Amino acid sequence: MSVEAQAMVPTHLQDVENLAGTPRFHEVTPEGLVVLTVQGDQLSARDLDAVYRFRLQQYRYRGWVSEEALAKLGLTAEPYGAAALTDLHTLVIEQQTAIVRGYGTLASPPILPGQKLGDTDRNHYVIERDYGIDLAEILDPRTPTEAVKEGKRLIRDYGMPRSRAGASVPWWVYLAWTTGCVSVLSTSNGAAIVGDAKERGATYQLALIGFSVRSLECDALAPGKDDIFAPMWTQEDQSHPFILTDEERRLSSTREYLHEVLLSASDTSISQLLKDFRGTCD
Q1: Closest CA to 147 of 157, 139, 159, 138
Q2: What's the CA gap between 272 and 185, in Å, rounded?
Q3: 3-state SS string over 10-78?
Q4: C-alpha–C-alpha distance, residues 143 and 184, integer Å
Q5: Cα(90)–Cα(102) distance, rounded to whole angstroms?
Q6: DSSP letter at 99?
Q7: Which residues pair with 116 in a beta bridge?
Q8: Residue 72, CA distances (Å) to 52, 66, 69, 159, 208 in order
Q9: Which of 64, 101, 145, 218 could staple 59 via S-S, CB 3.0–4.6 A?
Q10: The pairing of beta strand 192-197 with beta strand 240-245
């Protein structure tokens, strides 16, 4: 089966109706999508495995994965460890079929109580390793590491047919994903969400939904030969690191407005509506 064909095979969650505990976010959309933000340990083991299969599947479809490295390692899912159980996972799932249609995560490396960004023995964030940066030199080194989370894998299922539901999926992912972001940003004056994205893509959209966005003009380090995501770093339009805060205090009101827009099932461009809304708030 070709890579494209494999990527088109739907990913199903089998136990999503039996979550352990209450989701951080839960909504059923007018288009029949279930939107959830849950901690990894709220999912069954097989559903968590399915989430990481979906992540790898979608990156393969986009051509961001080295098929040679995958074959060498014998991987059918993106590797993950114990941190996946405490990471927050946002999922958009078809209500009738339980097919995953959208995803995002809010993650962090293993953190020890009381650790600060300036501590030399702390674990590093993925963007620090990928871009050769030190967040302690960019943010306040006194910031607790538990107040800095990493936004990752904000994606829509490439196999989903074009439709109004399909167009809404990325925005539902953003809305549900920001539930965790709001919680993190309220913990400390130096709190931040970090990650990387293309400036004309997710970085622009994150500003639209109310974040204060700071982009860092630095390039990724050259990938290792066995890096399964090596092709991702050779694209013409490269990603750059970002720092998200709520410095302008727009996030709460914009999230409320976005929620209203999504529930209205409007055919108007959501990007344009958010752009107009931002203009009324200036």
Answers
A1: 139
A2: 26
A3: CCECCCHHHCCCCCCEEEECCCCEEEEEEEHHHCCHHHHHHHHHHHHHHHHHCCCCCHHHHHHHCCCCC
A4: 12
A5: 8
A6: B
A7: 144
A8: 18, 10, 5, 26, 41
A9: 64
A10: antiparallel
Q: Whole domain around residue 163: which residue ranges?
A: 3-281
- Alpha carbons 111 and 209: distance in angstroms, whole number: 28
d(CA 154, CA 196): 10
Alpha helices (H) in 107-209, listed in sequence order: 126-131, 164-185, 202-208
pTM reported for the whole predicted model: 0.94
Q: Give per-residue pLDDT as tens, 9-65.
A: 889 999 998 999 999 999 999 999 999 999 999 999 999 999 999 999 999 888 889
CB-CB contact of 155 with 103 (8 Å): yes
- Residue 63: CB atoms within 10 A of its CB come to 15
Burial 102-136 (b: 16+ CB within 10 A, else e): bbbbbbbeebeeeebbbeeebeebebbebbebebb
- How many separate domains does the chain show? 1
Structure-token pair, residue 229: 């995501």
Domain containing residue 229: CATH number: 3.40.630.30
Instruction: Give the C-alpha separation, 192 to 153, whole Å.
Output: 17
Largest separation between any pair of C-alpha atoms in the chain: 54
Nearest to 178 by CA among 210, 223, 143, 137: 210
Q: What is the dihedral of CA 146, 151, 153, 155, to 10 degrees?
A: 140
CA dist., res. 198 & res. 241, Å (int): 9
Beta pairing partners, 105: 89, 152
What is the spatial distance between Cα 116 and Cα 219, in angstroms, rounded to a whole number?
26
Over residues 109-138, the pLDDT tens digits come to 888 889 999 999 999 999 999 999 999 999
